[in-house]
């Protein structure tokens, strides 16, 4: 792929990911939302790559989680994520709007659309443990032992075993059995604030999609 077509922040980010690849935590960022009463909420999420054909950052989540509630209450579904790369001592603050793709909407897709969707591609790439989490009880409900995977009843249990045994199953089967709680979050960047602590003085670059991602060097 021709990286010249990518905005400067993405080219830099790809380089940061490469420089920090030995550290698993370099794929985690903190994502902030604002809840219905105006209070900030912040949590860690895993970066799962760029969406095919654009610069959106992908993560996954559970549709029953509070971040989804925050976004569903807001027309613009705003976010800011903060990503620190410890080895190269760089920070990216990316803000914009979140696009939510719900597995529960798959019945509205044509068979071809579903099969080629980023939602299904991302689900298939998850580890068994990551898939299993979507079949557990609702986040924040009191924990009890009978919520464990081994006790999941009926069709949910069948769905789980279909999905976690990845061998010898085709995409159509995965689509039929994917957890309804699975959500692919696509973070659409509108502004990027980059800080490099390695440089002396510290380097800070601001860029906005509305200004064709042209970078402005500012005091840190
Ligand atoms: C290292 C790490 C990675 C995490 N990755 C994710 C993730 O990719 N998606 C997610 O929904 N939650 C992830 N979590 C859990 C969230 O930080 C958070 O606790 C959970 O999503 C509930 O948040 P909410 O109720 O504010 O939505 C991760 C937590 C840690 C510590």
Automatic annotation (TrEMBL):
<dbReference type="InterPro" id="IPR012349">
    <property type="entry name" value="Split_barrel_FMN-bd"/>
</dbReference>
<dbReference type="InterPro" id="IPR024624">
    <property type="entry name" value="Pyridox_Oxase_Alr4036_FMN-bd"/>
</dbReference>
<protein>
    <submittedName>
        <fullName>Pyridoxamine 5'-phosphate oxidase family protein</fullName>
    </submittedName>
</protein>
<feature type="domain" description="Pyridoxamine 5'-phosphate oxidase Alr4036 family FMN-binding">
    <location>
        <begin position="7"/>
        <end position="100"/>
    </location>
</feature>
<dbReference type="Pfam" id="PF12766">
    <property type="entry name" value="Pyridox_oxase_2"/>
</dbReference>
<dbReference type="GO" id="GO:0010181">
    <property type="term" value="F:FMN binding"/>
</dbReference>
């Amino acid at each position: 792929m021709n990286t010249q077509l990518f905005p400067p922040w993405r080219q830099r980010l790809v380089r940061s990911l490469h420089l920090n690849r030995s550290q698993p935590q370099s794929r985690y960022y903190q994502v902030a939302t604002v809840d219905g009463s105006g209070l900030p909420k912040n949590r860690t999420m895993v970066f799962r790559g760029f969406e095919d054909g654009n610069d959106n950052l992908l993560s996954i989540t559970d549709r029953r989680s509070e971040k989804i509630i925050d976004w569903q209450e807001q027309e613009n579904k705003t976010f800011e994520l903060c990503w620190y790369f410890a080895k190269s001592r760089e920070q990216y603050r990316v803000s914009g709007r979140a696009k939510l793709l719900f597995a529960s909407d798959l019945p509205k897709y044509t068979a071809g659309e579903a099969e080629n969707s980023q939602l299904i591609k991302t689900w298939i790439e998850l580890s068994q443990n990551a898939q299993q989490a979507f079949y557990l009880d609702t986040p924040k409900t009191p924990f009890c032992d009978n919520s464990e995977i081994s006790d999941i009843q009926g069709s949910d249990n069948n769905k789980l075993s279909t999905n976690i045994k990845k061998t010898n199953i085709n995409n159509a089967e995965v689509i039929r059995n994917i957890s309804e709680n699975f959500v692919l979050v696509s973070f659409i960047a509108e502004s990027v604030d980059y800080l490099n602590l390695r440089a002396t003085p510290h380097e800070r670059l601001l860029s906005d999609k509305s200004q064709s991602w042209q970078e402005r060097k500012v005091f840190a």
